[in-house]
Amino acid sequence: MKLQEIVANRCGKEISQCTNEELYYALLEMTKGMAKEKVSNQGKRKLYYISAEFLIGKLLSNNLINLGIYEDVKKLLADNRKSLAEIEEGDPETSLGNGGLGRLAACFLDSIASLGLNGDGVGLNYHYGLFKQVFKNNLQNETPNPWIEKESWLTKTDVTYPIQFGGFTLQSRLYDIDVIGYENRTTKLHLFDVETVDESLVGDGINFDKEDIAKNLTLFLYPDDSDDKGRILRVYQQYFMVSNAARLIIDETLARGGDLHKLNEYAVIQINDTHPSMVIPEMIRLLMERGILMDEAIDIVSKTCAYTNHTILAEALEKWPIHFLEKAVPQLLPIIYELNSRVVKKYDDKSVAIIDDEKRVHMAHMDIHYGYSVNGVAYLHTEILKNTELNNFYRIYPEKFNNKTNGITFRRWLLHCDPELTALFESLIGDGFKKDATELEKLGAFVNDETVLQKILDVKNAKKAELKDYLAKTQGIELNENSIYDIQIKRLHEYKRQQMNALYVIHKYFEIKAGKKPARPITVIFGAKAAAGYKNAKLTIKLINNVADVINNDRSINGKIKVVFIEDYRVSIAEWIFAAADVSEQISTASKEASGTGNMKFMLNGALTLGTMDGANVEIVEEVGKENAFIFGMSSDEVIAHERNRDYDPMQIFNTDQDIRKVLMQLINGFYSPNDPELFRDLYNSLLNTQCTQFADTYFILKDFRSYAEAQKRVMEAYKDEEGWAKSAILNIAHAGKFSSDRTIQEYVDDIWHLDKITVEV
After folding, report:
1. Is there a catalytic annotation at residue 310?
2. Predicted structure pTM score
3. 262 is catalytic
């Protein structure tokens, strides 16, 4: 192994004499060197996966696993009285994403490399990412999250481009991060930065001068868009990303001997959500600069670009005012006008126009008209797109619409997260599941094996104890490892209904105070960041933390319920949580969650789903059966019908259900905010007062509350039967193979991308 040699050259001493920091940089050097040896650009057609987010997390252990040297390195270090886990604590977590969108993109890159496909990711090199979440007085505060060090996973390249905006030009610089496939090739995550970025521009919190584009362009992911300055900054960011991407695609195509007139034979561009949509007019523009006429350029691009839709929520489908584009990217407007003109001439339906009557450019509309594929990310999500939200487009282009249910890189979320469970599975079914997750199905043969079931429980209990120790050490949080770990970790949004979970906790607290104590203590764990300008989401965090303070300090309930909100939830914390979870909270309003991937990670680690029939939950339940999950709430059809008919009245529930009434009244009587009884009035009003929202209880929290409470009772009852719980756990794991990102990527290849596999010597 090269590590000893690298350590000697870098530090002039033995491994045992080195600090953890020295060993980290030695491992970094070794890993990057080994990754370089597996780079290959074979294959005629190349994928460019353009995304605003890549939430890749810490890389050291994952890369060592994929290189096949994890155990060897771990043993070598242990022989020298060094801990790989402690060394990895010094690995800065790349701050390039926020939620599921970014994590999915990271999983996809892993699978692209692991399957030996010719494809790279393209995004931006955010210096501070989203933000670091800090709780002060139980409120979320945002601070910068620097992660870029002098020596890092980033590799500076010689690739630069002049990117022109309205009135000025910025020089870009390309940085690469190696994406190491499991026993296969290395692909690249291409990250563009601006040479003039200035980190000192950031003042208090995450405030900065939003108008100084040359200095601020790549500081933050999703700058606060509560004002026009923040919104137009996003336009600048998005154009910078796609203009660089388009230039890189053209240059690489020509370098491989490709013909730009046949670009689609050499490249496929996957537009991940609407953030990269401007790649369509920009690529048309760049092809025209090279002498290709507009008609042909439009045709070429339309055969090259494919679009992934990640949302059903209208507000998440970006619509930029024309005057923003006039200021930021005036060179694109003639092309966008032309693209819209062709649509308007062809279709007598204003709803499918790219530019609406309010002079806004609909990015998703452009993607659908001028791309050759439109995919949803779960079966239910795709059906809703086809039948309701994008039905006007589906009727025009039925052949474009297809489904690609999301997936996860199970190697990271099992092999890395839970090596003990991995070792158990290896002893039972061999190691084939490491490359083919469907091999996990073989675990079904052990569903009645009492010895195996007990080992499953033993591993879970050990991981719960590890999470307890980790949170005590890192956040001063005390857990009871003998309690049920009931966990909801995901981006905080009202449709994901953390608020309903919080209201149920208040209800459960009432029950316990009244003497209805659960057979097993419950620990309710939250982890989530709210967008900096999202008032109700941030207020929900405050509510949960205040509720936790009251409940956790009430000695009369004897620890029967505890509430925990993990600060600054991120990938490295998630790796501890998924392995320890008993219950996976997937409680979004039916029809609102496109897919979800946290549900898949929980399932893979033997947690049972408590959820609605929403997103990928539908397919999880199809795999494991309703008897091995806890399903509640309205169906998507029922939700859509209520929204269409506007016949839902939450006040009726408030007036007839005394339990719900009691819970809601505690939001405004000062019980959880004695110094400010009106603190949670906005949350109360959003559930009951039609004057505060489009219509009260937009996400049907009160409508589903009783059903949710009943499902929680079923959870408690089921947990009493340890053997039965273990059976459900192993069946969930055995059916998790469908949700491998390897399967998802292979479906993209077969149906959309049509890439050749590359053989790389291992």
Report:
1. yes
2. 0.96
3. no
